[in-house]
Every structure is written in C-alpha cells, then in structure tokens.
Design a protein that fits this description.
single chain, 308 residues, four-stranded antiparallel sheet, binds aspartic acid
C-alpha cells in the first residue's frame, strides 16, 4: 500500500507555557488527538486526502478550544467572521470562503465552493447565500458564544486594537486550525479554518482562506496549512513559497519549511508556523512562536501530539 500521512494544527497562538495548567493542557492534547485520529482513520480506510483533511478540520471547528467554527473569536461588531480554504494537490482545485457568520463548519462550505461552484473564493453575504443553496448546516449566535472569547473581546472592544495572537506580550491564545494529508492514491490535500483575530474590523481577511498564502497543495511538492500573523503570511505568500522552494530549488520539505518560517517570514516581522506533508509522506511542523498546537501520524504509524 502507498504511504499515508496526516498532520493537524490548532494554531500557533498558544497559551504561553507558564500560564498553561495541567488540566487545560490535557484538554488541548485530547482535542488534538481526537482530530488527528479522525483524519487518519479515514486515510487508513482508503478515503481521499480531501475527505481526511476536511473531517479533521471539522472536528477542530466543533471544539470550542480552538479559534475556528464553534470557538471562533469575536470581531469588532460582536459577530464571528470566519474564513476557510481547502485545496487538492492532484487537480489544483481549491475552494474558500471568508467572512461567514452562521455556517457551522466553514471548511465544509469551502469544500462545496470547490466541488459545486465555478469559483474559488466566496465572501460574506454571497457565501452565506451559497451555503443556504447548498443546504449547508448553519447555527445561531448562541452556538458561537463562548465566555472566554467574549471576555477577550470585551477587554479590547472599544479600542483600535485587534488582538495579534502571536506577539510575545500576549497572554491569551487565538489561532487557526488546519490539516494536511497524503492518501493511499498518492494525492495531497490541505485545509485551513479560522475565526481570524479578536476585534478585527472593516471586513479584515487574513491568510487562511487565501490559496497560496495560508493554504496550498500540489502533488508535485507538498500540502501546507499555516497559522500566524495573517498580514505577514499574506505578504510572504508563505504556503506557495514552501512549495516553490521545493519545486524550483529542489529543497527538501524540511529545508524549505525552515527557510520560510525561520528566515523569510521572520525578516518581514511575521510570527507563526505551519504544518506540511510532502508527496513521499514526510511531515514538517515548524514554528517561530513559543508553541503551536500540533499533531501528526506518519506513514510508519508514529504519532506526535505537542504544544511547545
Ligand atoms: N492566520 C490567522 C489570521 O491571520 C490567525 C492565526 O493563525 O492565528 O487570520
């Protein structure tokens, strides 16, 4: 059988180490374990990498601990404006949504954009209209309400600040979720979903739903899902940059990831990390922040679940 591999992340904006407590840490580790197992189970039973990354991300979106879906942070208008994208490495097909407020699992809407529309990226009201046409499951504001998130927002809501989760000053966590996989047919896929940044305004969209910036897959090289200060990841075209370094300069997955996360993105002031799997099933999960919620199961069956 062809090799299978899967990696997931729950964001680089982790709770800083000295604020983490054992019981909370246990919850995070369990959340990561559940999601990685869910995706891997599908890969093992012969499902496509697209189905595996979608289902791992849906699992994380349903977990209020992570900033996506149910746990999405509050925007300045007191709502949730979620972004997501999915991409297949074989066809380079992709779908994304940004600024959706009521869709339970934004990643499933991104999948529908990829499979059932002529487009790649739908935004705001139009994306919600498409969701209702597709009978995509929605939820009301109560479902997305979380006391911890609400408090985070209350602390900064009347200021011009938006919470940059990756700054060293930060004591709270935010993040994004994502998954990348290689399936038994040799196909790669990547999926990413986020609530973005607390108190974001003006329809701000980060890197997560943008193909090539926060999410990318190409069977020639690798599949990538990013997390970090979105404005910098957009400017660094980070996900595509990793793929490009492999394709054009012949770098290994590990070397390409290191170049981008430890050098290029840092040079322009960006902080964060990414998860990546290449077309041979190798996995890399680099970050330049204090931690990144992450988990993987590679083709040897080796499981990693880590935060710092
Ligand atoms: N990259 C996400 C954004 O900028 C946030 C994150 O990964 O923490 O929307």
């Amino acid at each position: 059988m062809q090799k299978i591999s899967l990696a997931i992340h729950g964001g680089a904006g982790t709770i800083i180490k000295n604020k983490m407590n054992p019981s909370l840490e246990k919850k995070y580790l369990k959340g990561l374990k559940d999601a990685v197992n869910e995706g891997y189970k599908l890969l093992k039973s012969g499902s496509s990498s697209t189905d595996a990354v979608q289902s791992a991300v849906e699992n994380l979106e349903n977990n209020p601990l992570f900033n996506a879906g149910k746990g999405a942070v509050f925007s300045a208008n007191g709502k949730h404006e979620m972004d997501a994208a999915i991409m297949e490495g074989k066809s380079l097909n992709a779908g994304g949504v940004c600024g959706v407020s009521s869709v339970k699992n934004p990643i499933s809407l991104a999948r529908l954009v990829m499979d059932k529309s002529e487009h790649v990226l739908l935004s705001g009201k139009g994306a919600e209209d498409f969701a209702s046409l597709m009978n995509c499951k929605t939820e009301n504001e109560k479902y997305f309400y979380d006391e911890f998130r609400h408090d985070q927002w209350q602390r900064i809501k009347d200021t011009d600040k938006f919470q940059l989760d990756h700054s060293p000053k930060k004591t709270d966590k935010f993040g994004t979720v994502g998954a990348v996989a290689l399936d038994s047919f040799g196909n790669l896929a990547a999926a990413t979903s986020t609530g973005g940044m607390t108190n974001k305004k003006f329809g701000r969209v980060g890197d997560s739903p943008i193909i090539g910036a926060g999410n990318y897959a190409n069977n020639k090289t690798c599949a990538i899902s990013c997390t970090g200060s979105g404005e910098f990841f957009l400017r660094g075209v980070v996900a595509y940059d990793v793929s490009c370094l492999m394709e054009m300069r012949g770098l290994s997955l590990e070397a390409a990831c290191k170049e981008v996360i430890q050098k290029r993105i840092k040079l322009i002031g960006g902080d964060g990390g990414l998860i990546a799997v290449d077309n041979k099933g190798n996995i890399a999960m680099p970050f330049n922040t204090e931690g990144m919620y992450r988990a993987s199961i590679d083709f040897t069956g080796k499981e990693i679940i880590e935060i710092y």
